[in-house]
Amino acid sequence: MMKKGKGRVIALGTILACSIGLGTLSVEAGNENSGYSFTIKKEQANTSTGTEYRQTTTERNTWKVRMYKSTEGTNTVTTYWLEKSNGTNVSPSVKVTAGSGGLNSGRNHYVKGNAGANAANVRLTAENNNVSSSSYSVNGYWDEETGRILPGQYKESYTTEYNK
Questions:
Q1: What is the spatial distance between Cα 127 and Cα 95, in angstroms, rounded to a whole number?
Q2: pTM value?
Q3: Average pLDDT over the chain, rounded to whole?
Q4: What is the structure's pLDDT at 5?
């Protein structure tokens, strides 16, 4: 009878210790899909999302963007980059081709940040890749910090299929 009670105390103690330990873990970057939807303005004027905190301290921890729909048309191109709310660019730009409109269309583009993007509030910013007197709407997903380190063979970015 004593052995059974002792086992329960040990089990409860282990569960409590694990719970306390999990509460002290730091939050790590995840490869998330935060939706965006905005209008790309005419004459290459900038459009941006709200800011997100990028906690990384390494420039090679990539951010991600994917454009699954553009009212400009399938396979049209829009330029994206990260910037601070004061308008300072904090990443290389990447030209993203629009998917066919389905949530699974388009490709993920993983891009490194610059030093200014480390431990900073950043926003996804976009413009038309060419000068045009027309505006158009885009939809897609982005993540300010994916936890994916840019592989050494790539200088600034790489592209994958959906959700890879």
A1: 10
A2: 0.81
A3: 85
A4: 56
Distance separating alpha carbons of residues 157 and 75, to the nearest angstrom: 19
Q: In the structure, what pLDDT confidence band is assigned to residue 29 with cuts at 50, 70 and 90?
A: low
CA angle 111, 147, 94 (to 5 degrees): 10
Nearest to 81 by CA among 130, 150, 144, 162: 144
pLDDT of residue 24: 27
Mean pLDDT across the stretch 73-94? 97
- Predicted local distance difference test score (pLDDT) of residue 8: 53
Closest CA to 86 of 114, 48, 58: 48
User: Angle at the Cα of 144 (from 51 to 123), degrees rounded to 5?
Assistant: 30
Please give the average per-residue pLDDT across 16-39, as a whole number: 59
Q: Residue 10 to residues 18, 20, 81, 109, 119: CA-CA distances in angstroms?
A: 12, 15, 53, 49, 41
What angle (nearest 5°) sits at the alpha carbon of residue 39, between those of residues 99 and 94? 55
DSSP 83-116: E-TTS-B-S--EEEE---SSTT-S-EEEEPPPGG
At residue 123's C-alpha, the angle toward residues 140 and 110, to 5°, is 55
- Grouping H, G, I as helix, E, B as strand and the rest as coil, residue 63 is strand
